[in-house]
Amino acid sequence: MSKELQSNQSLSSLIKPSFYRNSVQRLAILFASSAFLMLALPTINLTGSKLLAQNAVSQDLDAAILYQLGVTRYNRRDLQSAEYAFRQALQRDSNIGLARNYLGNILMEQNRLDLAVQEYGEAIRLIPNFGEFYYNLGLALQKQGQKEAAIAAYRQALAANPKMAAAQYNLGVILYEEERCQEAIAAYQEAINLDRNNANAYFNLAIALQQEGQLEQAIATYRQILKLNPENTVAYNNLGSLMVIQGQPSEAIAIYQKAIGQNPKNALAYYNLGVTLYNQGNLKEANAALKRARQEYGEQGNTERTTTIDDMIQKISEYLTPKKPQHTQTTTPTPNNSDVVLPTPEMQTPQMQTPEQQKPEKSTHVPKTVEQKP
């Protein structure tokens, strides 16, 4: 038996029926709150076939015409008519691997995942060395929650096409979910090597590095994110919080202020700025920042956070309210550890975003999708 056939059989053995399971991985990140992996899995955004211009689709002219009709309808987003045309083509010639792949795309877009997996498997059987087919199979398996099978499919895609950045990226996502953090880091780094503009890969890499306690590398990665996207307020907040952990509060304050400059409605940036200023003894500025944070959280309807901030503001106000001292006091006292203790700055908590997998809480940071390969 050939190695290729053994590999395909090994992959097939991992594919099993399953119901999709929501799985949000919480990270312990050295802060009072926790951070989520910002997962940016692919949604469907399909293109024409690379093989179409290179090879005859079928020796049966009618089958080839029906296939071409399916591609045309598919590109027009008439999926029902496209599916019919592809099935008609396959009735005349069942060995058109490209038609099987297109059917898999249509079925996956309709969330008919078991059937999509079957069609991709047939496409691979007919054209076993085409990495994009393995990639699409990985997508369908990933949406099903069959993570080990999806990992195997993505590795097969990369064996056929080592420069497929999207496969490396999605591999990193699953490995991270499986708590194989070092492998995930390696996959994200490879994805970045293949696509230096993949901001999602940088972001997920930063979270994974942070999870592993590699804070200097995480900081450097957040800075790279901000070079790619200066409006990424999530990265600003997380970077600022890491600077606090590293004992650089002044730089953290400057970073929070930049975050606010990018998004004046960023409640968490105001909150973290207020906490950091307070811990530096800048009570008046801390009070002002926390009041603005309270205003923004109030507009969001976040009563839990507004109540917490109200308690903070009240305690700070006790220091700022003039009292009748028993002796002359000319300066505002700086609170010490026995006085008011505010929590440490928090990490931003962008939600895990997957196609039809989860319905996360609303977030202002919406990740871009990865294009599915046909």
Automatic annotation (TrEMBL):
Pfam families: TPR_1, TPR_16, TPR_19. Residues 358-374 have a biased composition (Basic and acidic residues). Residues 320-374 are annotated as: Disordered. Keywords: Membrane, Repeat, TPR repeat, Transmembrane, Transmembrane helix. The chain crosses the membrane at residues 27-44. One of its GO terms (biological process) is receptor-mediated virion attachment to host cell. InterPro entries: TPR-like_helical_dom_sf (IPR011990), TPR_rpt (IPR019734), Ycf3 (IPR050498). Residues 343-357 have a biased composition (Low complexity). GO terms for cellular component: cell outer membrane. Gene3D superfamilies: Tetratricopeptide repeat domain. TPR repeats lie at residues 63-96, 97-130, 131-164, 165-198, 199-232, 233-266. PANTHER family: TETRATRICOPEPTIDE REPEAT PROTEIN 6, UDP-N-ACETYLGLUCOSAMINE--PEPTIDE N-ACETYLGLUCOSAMINYLTRANSFERASE SPINDLY-RELATED. This is TPR repeat-containing protein. It comes from Nostoc azollae (strain 0708).
